[in-house]
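job 3f2a | input accepted
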Amino acid sequence: MRRVAVITGASAGLGAEFARQLRAEGYELLVVARRAERLAAIEGERWVADLSGEAEVERLAAHLASRDDIALLVNNAGFGTQGFFAETALEAQMAMHRLHVLATVRLTRAVLPQMLRRRAGAIVNVSSVAGFGRSANNVSYCATKAWTNAFSEGLWLELQGTGVSVQALCPGFTYTEFHDVMGSDRAKHPRWMWMDAAFVVEESLRNLGRLYVVPGWKYKVFLAIWTKLPAWLRLRLERRSPNGKGAPGVIN
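job 3f2a | predicted structure (252 res):
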């Protein structure tokens, strides 16, 4: 049987790396992104779409729901912004919520029935270490990634014993275009905090079937401590962190 992997946000960063590694593993690809010229470099079925728009999401979802060969869905498309919520452009915030939340819901719902019928398949929701904290200067990003974690947990509970798995991939700082696009200075964060995209994707694919995947032992240790803090202490640390950013920072 054909194994097709659907990857959103496939034109760069983690999405492009997922495409490279999944192709090497023998998957056929259906890659989705806004930039047609970037997709042209990826072998496979190409779908040009801006998934922050409802009509584009519905068009893709209808196509996916009509198929019976989707073995893996990687909900990777996303972006970050900088600035206080009341001061940043409203449309950018709304687009982020539509892309991170509503597109993930719709595309997941489109492929799950076929996976459940076959009793096989996997969904990877690309989240972030930032989903475990809060950040002044990046309210929507942390909130949507926290939602991604909660959504993945709920699905994990429902999918027990079905042969279908869901993963919340939660990387820390990763070398991609993510921070360049949002205008974030990488030099503000120590070099030891950064990981290669190839390593992050390797960890994800090696651990398909596990609910939470946090690449890198340093981030594992950080979250083991961070998630045990009482809310009052966590919020105080986030409030006092440099540049008004929360302790987990703006992380891909």
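job 3f2a | Residues 178-183, 243-252 have pLDDT under 50 and may be disordered.
job 3f2a | closed
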